[in-house]
Amino acid sequence: MIAYGEFIARGELYDGYFELENGRIRIDGLEFSIDEVKFLPPVKPEKIVGVGLNYKDHAKELNMEIPEEPVLFLKSPSSVIGDKEFIVLPERSERVDYEGELAIVIGRKCRNADVESAADCILGYTCFNDVTARDLQQKGWQWSFAKSFDTFSPIGPYISTSLNPKNLGIRTYLNGRLVQNSNTSNLVFDVYSLVSHVSSILTLKEGDVIATGTPAGVGKLKRGDEIVVEIEGIGRLTNYVR
Ligand code: MG
């Protein structure tokens, strides 16, 4: 696949497009094993737009109705971390949940895009974990704040730039155990509708991220956990909890 990202390998920083095949990365005439590189967050978004209740089964597990139009919130860009980094549990929350999600990464300035032209605004797709202080969200905090603690937006490891997003398996593993298992074909609002809808409200810019919502199976994180979001055609985003 062709991917876009930023990583450190053998003490050097690389960024831009690279080829990834069978665990081998090729960039600038060099080749690395994916296991020897440290990926950095592949984007520095100005905005992270989250979408709530975008899988029917997840709305059901929260006892909430399927919305008629996308439920949107913002996450702070300061909550971004990369692959293999630590999610830090804040002391004031008793329940912090993982939410495995497909993230859309915007490739160019985009305003009032229609559904048909939305694809032109998209650079690619990556894995995202919409970490959420569920108890604070449920006790009435604005969603944006319950989801914006530092380290609450793991993203990456890199952006897949040649992918059809309509039918991708999405799975989350907590300490190796499968806890979420769905497909992007189950999205209530698909990626093109979301780009169109969001861009009718605000101007999306290069590097901005739309997190498309999580399927059923959200659950609690505790210290020492390993949480992996895996999306077919992209790869695995691994984070640890402390
Ligand atoms: Mg979410």
* Separation of the first and last Cα atoms: 33 Å
Percentage beta strand: 35-45%
CATH topology of the largest domain: Fumarylacetoacetate hydrolase, domain 2
Helix count, DSSP H or I runs of 4 or more residues: 4
Please state the second-level CATH architecture of the largest domain. Answer: Alpha-Beta Complex
Helix content: under 10%
Q: What is the count of β-strands?
A: 20
How many domains would you count in the coordinates? Answer: 2
Main sheet attributes: strand count, strand direction, barrel closure: 12 strands, mixed
How would you state the average pLDDT, rounded? 96
CATH class of the largest domain: Alpha Beta
Tell me the name of the CATH homologous superfamily of the largest domain. Fumarylacetoacetase-like, C-terminal domain
What compounds are bound to the protein? magnesium ion
Low-confidence stretches: none
Outline:
globular
Q: Helix/strand-derived class?
A: mainly beta
Gyration radius, in Å: 17 Å
Q: Which series of helices and strands comes N to C?
A: EEEEEEHEEEEEEEHHEEEHEEEE
